[in-house]
Amino acid sequence: MITIGIISISDRASEKIYEDQGIPSVINFFDKNFSSDLNKISIKKSILIPDNLDLIKEKIIEYVDEHKLNVIITTGGTGPSKKDLTPNATREVIEEELPGFGEYMRSESLKYSKNAILSRQLAGIRKDSIVLNLPGSPNSIGEILPNIIDQIVHFVEERNRD
Predict the structure, then answer these.
(1) Which has the closest alpha carbon to 99: 109, 110, 87?
(2) Radius of gyration over alpha carbons of the chain, in Å?
(3) For residue 26, which of 119, 138, 129, 108 has the smallest C-alpha distance?
(4) CB 85 within 8 A of CB 52
(5) What is the Cα–Cα distance from 41 to 127, expressed in whole angstroms?
(6) Residue 86: pLDDT above 90?
(7) How far is it, in rounded angstroms, from Cα 117 to Cα 76?
(8) Predicted TM-score (pTM) above 0.70
(9) Which residues of 52-74 are buried (b: 16+ CB within 10 A; e: fewer)?
(10) At a CB cut-off of 8 Å and minimum separation 6, what does 129 contact?
(11) pLDDT for 36 beyond 80
């Protein structure tokens, strides 16, 4: 069983200025692709929080250290704005970066938007969990997640094997 936590990061969505689209987009992906295989993947936790460095770090640590989730997917806060702090927070709590994920996610996104070059998406390891920073856009999530899910599953299987 692969357990997943989703952390959507958005000041405006957390202030109810608009509705969060990150969590529903990730859930929709797993519902569409794994609904017949409920014994393999389960979304255990999700939360919407503002773009706050300490809060992002706290939630990643909580999901990994306390809830022992295998995969932490963050959405939002990966752009070039001074308020976009997700990669900064992630780097502070992971033990090792997996640079291939960030490189691949950006290269996939570049197929759809030249602005993807500004994205700071990354992935890394904390304990036996993988933490992935996805953009907040539902379109971007839908373009990226299907292309990296096999590697996410492989990561979890390899970590559980040891």
Answers:
(1) 87
(2) 14
(3) 138
(4) yes
(5) 19
(6) yes
(7) 15
(8) yes
(9) beebbbebbbbbbeeeebbbbbb
(10) 63, 64, 68, 69, 70, 71, 72, 159
(11) no
